[in-house]
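Field reference: sequence -> structure
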Amino acid sequence: MGRFLKHINSPKELRLLNQKDLPQLAQELREFIIDIVATKEGHLGASLGVVELTIALHYVFNTPEDLLIWDVGHQAYVHKILTGRKDVFHTNRQLGGISGFPKRDESVYDAFGVGHASTSISAALGMAIASQLKGDFNKQHIAVIGDASIAGGMAFEGLNHAGVTHANLLVILNDNAIGIDPSVGALKQYLTNVKQGIQKKNNIIKALNFDYSGPIDGHDIDKIISELKRLKSVKGPKFLHIITTKGKGLKQAEENQVTYHAPGKFDASTGDIISKTPSEFTKYQDVFGHTIVELAKQNKNIVGITPAMPTGSSLKYMMEAMPHRAFDVGIAEQHAVTLAAGMATQGLVPFCNIYSTFLQRAYDQIIHDVALQKLPVIFCLDRAGLVGEDGATHHGAFDMSYLRCIPNLIIFAPRDEIELRNIMYTAQLGLQLPIAIRYPRGTGAIAQWKQPFISIEIGKGVQLKKGEKIAVLSIGTIAKNVSEAILNLNVSHYDMRFAKPLDETLLHTIFKNYQTIFTVEDNAIKGGFGSAVLEFAAANNYKNTIKSIGIPDTFIEHGSVTELQKSIGLDIAGLREVFGLFL
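Structure field:
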């Protein structure tokens, strides 16, 4: 473990070290992280890039009394190790283990829970104002934010407000020119010019009334400590610009920063990624990515939009094939949605690809800018349902619930890859309304999914299996679990496909022929597909027994998708058991 790291169980022990020994501690921390993440997986590059900064922050500031807030939290592994979680770090992101992100109920050192970008400045400013109101003018409030996250609109809102306060706030910009994918936009170019010494006047941060210092080398621990000590005595909002290298200390991670953001398992000694047995199946994101290119070649009006996730969403294929028609707008979900709305007014066919959990950040834009105006934006919601080890901040558990109440919006969940292709094809034929298409993280189960396109009739479900005892209504890819659960059961199975509009003709037939009806979804039970069926039953005065199965009314923690499905009864065995009670 290293001669210094083994003795550190909290920042109190860290502060007892001689400053000259901190570079050695940094080396030990990098080795510790690499060794564990190599076998347990996780977010590697971001944490390797902030080792010196994290040591310096806990060395100079009196955490947890001084409040340290990380943006997103991909880079917080060193923070966790130094704040009492070293011995359980091997459980990171695993079921029952520590979270992959800062989390308030996990440690007093985690001042604010994070997982989404651009929140740190607003949170830290809120804390700083609270300290002022309490008369505590010595407490420090530090927000660490990356160059990709600071381009998000909420970060600018926080900076704008902070600049007209006297709050004791320090914003540290960890500038490595990359988020998950390379940073984009005019601000990124501005920061590049600052680093290269081209931009010397008209500093944006100074113009917002911050005391700006930097840029300094984020791997020179003595320089960072010196600057942090100086800034402790500076009144009002301060801004420190540091330059780091994502993946610092692991050659491959430095050279291939996108892949090594979260590389999976790799050889700790060489850094080489351990190749997995190739799946015969394709990730849903890649089905989307290849299909939009195929459609865009046929339809010149199709454009693609992603807020900072070209690799994760696989819009990268379109960006490579037709870069003038595919747009990475940075961490800016609100802008992405309204940009798509603007394009739609001019006859373009925008596919706006946003993770389900991130679309939450653009809720007003969906309502005000898209649905209210009946603009035919095609929302492709990747990572819908349970996503696994990223946990509560990233599960796409709420989209059907928060979208279903919006007028003029169609909601579709394909049960497989072919259905995803066909609804994408249907959507670009000339829908007069916006549509949200939700699909999960990971692979499907059809090897030959690239089939000729077939148009899907809006609002129509299909029967997958005929039985006599009960009817199971599913929506989306959870149909696979249902189909396997009822293999030898005398049960009917319907894939309803649309959460809105419901196939009411089919529902009337089902309610008249089956006394007991189950709804199954990988969305929150509250307000989701099952709720829609219950509303239909109430409106039509049906007295059937209706049982809804889905994600319960709680935030689901981290673990593999299989483990999490089992924990809430959405796995094959759990479904079979509950169906069996009514046979």
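Note: The chain is about 35% helix and 15% strand.
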